[in-house]
Amino acid sequence: MSAPRPLWKNFLRFLAPLMLSNALQSLFGTVSNVYLGHMIGVDALAAVSTFFPVFFFLFAFVMGLSTGATVLIGQAFGAGKHDRIKIVVGTTLAVGLLLSMSVGLIGGLFSRQLMMTLATPADILDQASTYARIMLLTMPLGFTFLLMTAMIRGVGDAVTPLLALALSTAIGLVLTPILIRGAIGITSPAWAAAIANSLTLLALAAYLRRKKHALAPDAALLRHVRLNRAVIGQILGIGLPSAVGMVVMAVAELVLLGLVNGFGSDATAAYGAVNQVMGYTQFTAMSISIAVSILGAQAIGGGDRARLDGIVRAGLAFNLVLTGGLVALIYLAPRAVLGIFITDGAVLDLAKGLLLVALWSSVPFGLATTFSGAMRAAGVALTPMLLSIFAIVAIELPAAVMLSRSIGLAGVWAAYPIVFCAMFVLQMGYYLLVWRRREIRRLV
């Protein structure tokens, strides 16, 4: 009999396609912004960047929903309760569709008012409003796609979501420049994403059915696409605190964007470029947190506490090596990396300075989310969320306001390392001193 595979190898085997998936999600936004910046101009990039906090705000809800569902799916999979998986998946899809259609309709009608509320500079208000309208109206397709790919990972399958995202990204990257040249303009990336999501969902459904996958959209699953109150309660018990935590981060981003917009449209464009770069380091950290949460849920489902502890240690180590390594690589050539998004020399110089201030904070951010991911695997999400909210409200926002007044635009970005270091200390302290000493019970 062969020796069991070391835990870190199993972790990496799951993490690698998960990281590639998140990289592909970032890649579409990145290349779309490159297309806009080079083919239309810096104003188009600034207009799209203004929508980023709104997108993050909405993304928080679907991620919270998928987080709760994935933990339950992981625990059910680890416990061998496969019939429970389809019930959770069907209920999650029903809630996601209802939420996204409501958001799409309301947001699509009031996109201009929304952009005005964000203090969008007048010279890019029309473009930002048009882009926001299309993004919001096509939101149900994006929500459904994100939910399905996230839930598939709950049964330990990170390869199928990677294949789906690869197909979606390829379609989107081909369509975007075609639509720009076809005079669609700034909404080209939004339309390209909607078409790509539609085609990929059809292909994914066919693939899952052919493979007889646990999440295949067969008759059994479709019967459960309804609002099951008991399951919704379990999903929201885990997912709602996670969503609220992300929403608070999104609201904080809106406040920070308001501060940035006060420095003019060049500062807004620099904000967008720096966010794109930091997105890669933060998505690396978030990938590791997701892996900890899913693998941890499976360990809890199987009643293996020792394995859970090993998963946390692996998550911390991978954060230092992978997130820290990526940060170091970007610091070696920040101007070249930012030059992918920006052609204007003044904006490029501004963005470089801001990136140097904030980028390293992705490492303590990753360490903090590893601890919160482990606790979330057991269904404990409320206290980690409250700790994060405390750090954002009591530390980040006051620091950003005060520092922006005293040292200018760089002060806004200095708030990122301040808050992420605080989150790391708070999450680690609660995990080691309180949560780890308690008995862990599975939810399914």
Class from secondary-structure proportions: mainly alpha
Shape: globular
Count of runs of 4 or more consecutive helical residues: 17
Q: Main sheet?
A: none
Mean pLDDT: 86
Radius of gyration: 21 Å
- Helical fraction: over 70%
Q: How many separate structural domains?
A: 1
Low-confidence stretches: none
Structure, described:
The chain is an all-alpha fold and 444 residues long. It has one domain (7-437). The protein is 83% helix and 0% strand. The protein contains 17 helices and no strands. The longest helix has 38 residues, at 42-79. It starts with 6 loop residues before the first helix and ends in an 11-residue tail after the last helix. The model has no long low-confidence stretch (mean pLDDT 86).
Keywords, separated by commas or semicolons:
mainly alpha, globular, single chain, 83% helix, 444 residues
Topology record:
Elements: H1 7-39, H2 42-79, H3 82-109, H4 111-117, H5 125-137, H6 139-152, H7 159-181, H8 188-210, H9 219-223, H10 229-261, H11 265-301, H12 305-332, H13 334-338, H14 345-358, H15 362-377, H16 382-407, H17 409-433
